[in-house]
Amino acid sequence: MAAGMDPEVAEPNLPETYNAFFYGTLMAPEVLCRVIYGASNHPSTSLTITPALLYDYCRHRVRFADYPAIISEPGHTVRGTYVTGLTPSNMRNLDYFEGSQYERKVVTVKILTPKDKEHTHGASAIMAEAVETGEEKEAQTYVFTDLNALEKGEWDFEFFRREKMKNWADESEEYAEVDAKAAKTNESEIGIHEFLDQPDPTGGRGIKTAMGKELKELADKKREEKWILEEKKRIAKEKSKCQGTIG
């Protein structure tokens, strides 16, 4: 049994793959691939990406940030992507990328299918007009924890793709916006940056910040072992919670 595990709880195995629901910057395949593979143009043949709805949550803008947040709010819905085929190492990178502002939770989403068959695949399917299929799936998602940082108002995915994604996925040297800000940062222990003069709209997650390098270093054996232990504890806690609900 791994250190730190409750001796009365059987040590769980990590799943071979995970399913996740993304509702912000990670809806863009280029950003998702950059986080989980280290390159925006990495072929993601092992993943399936499908539009989906999450009920009883609401998406908000985050103050001074390019990225949004979701919090539990009955009666609201959030449109996003349901992604399958994520490996444990992919989830490790995602946990690091999201940082302490978010808590990973298991939710149930409803799968959508685009009305126009020309938009069934690729980026065009993400926000195309769609209808529910009636199919429900469990998924991991990241729920925001810092309520004081939220702003009222919906986050616009198309605006993000058009105006902001260059700071998150473009790997050329053309853009210097984040570089200039990253040079004035203090790096925290989780890789998120606090800026001395003005906020970084990527929250330290941009391609020109230290996080890009940190993501590539997560394969370090000790760091990987630490993540695996924490993930097993999270899974055991989730199972215990489910059993308590059933009982």
UniProtKB/TrEMBL annotation:
- Superkingdom to which the source organism belongs: Eukaryota
Query: Gene3D superfamilies in the record, alphabetically?
Result: Gamma-glutamyl cyclotransferase-like
Q: Which SUPFAM superfamilies match?
A: Gamma-glutamyl cyclotransferase-like
What's a Gene Ontology MF term here? Answer: transferase activity
**Which family does the similarity line name?**
Belongs to the gamma-glutamylcyclotransferase family.
PANTHER family assigned to the protein according to its UniProt record, in alphabetical order: AIG2-LIKE PROTEIN D (PTHR31544:SF2)
Name this polypeptide is given: Putative gamma-glutamylcyclotransferase
